[in-house]
Amino acid sequence: MKKYTQLAEELTQEVKIISRNPGDPVEVLFAPEPWELLGCGNYAAVFVRPDFPDQVVKIYGRNHEDLLEEISVYRQLGEHPGYSRCYGYGERHLILKRIEGITLYDCLHKGVKISENVIRDVDEALCYARNRGLFPRDVHGKNVMISNGRGIIVDVSDFCKKEECYKWRDLRKAYFKIYQPFFYRFPLRVPYPVLNGVRIGYRWYKRWKMKK
């Protein structure tokens, strides 16, 4: 782990990440080889090396002060099958256990079935977090992954914020009322532009409803 920690520090110094819009994922302009980009979220980008396949480095592209909150969240969570694990951290990054699988978002795109036990796994993981004194929020299709048939929450960066969040509640409702009766039996491949349109439409709908 000492060698990996050094490599993670070097990556943090060389990588170039920008944030164009607070509501959109950060963008990676440059990452040194052999690091590979696994994905980007609204705050950070995640990288992996072929010679260290079991760990990832999550580098914040904005709101670096939130890094301390995420470190605190992982400390409170401890070890639980519904979450990753934090092995170490620096001024801008976290070293996490790699979770391999497919997000719910990509399941819809590729026509991969999402079983009910995945939803139940997430429900249990969220209940566990609340019992540990946390406030789970921002749990949605891009932040939940299916790994070996189990549901895992891969982003806990907002679990310290006490604002109420309905994203998982709404996704769960859509799963049981729409997805399970229709799409589970006959899975369709939904194009990314359509999924992104639904995401943007949902965001605007929630803003409109809050203003009423």
TrEMBL record:
<dbReference type="InterPro" id="IPR052396">
    <property type="entry name" value="Meiotic_Drive_Suppr_Kinase"/>
</dbReference>
<keyword id="KW-0723">Serine/threonine-protein kinase</keyword>
<protein>
    <submittedName>
        <fullName>Serine/threonine protein kinase</fullName>
    </submittedName>
</protein>
<dbReference type="GO" id="GO:0004674">
    <property type="term" value="F:protein serine/threonine kinase activity"/>
</dbReference>
<keyword id="KW-0808">Transferase</keyword>
<dbReference type="InterPro" id="IPR011009">
    <property type="entry name" value="Kinase-like_dom_sf"/>
</dbReference>
<keyword id="KW-0418">Kinase</keyword>
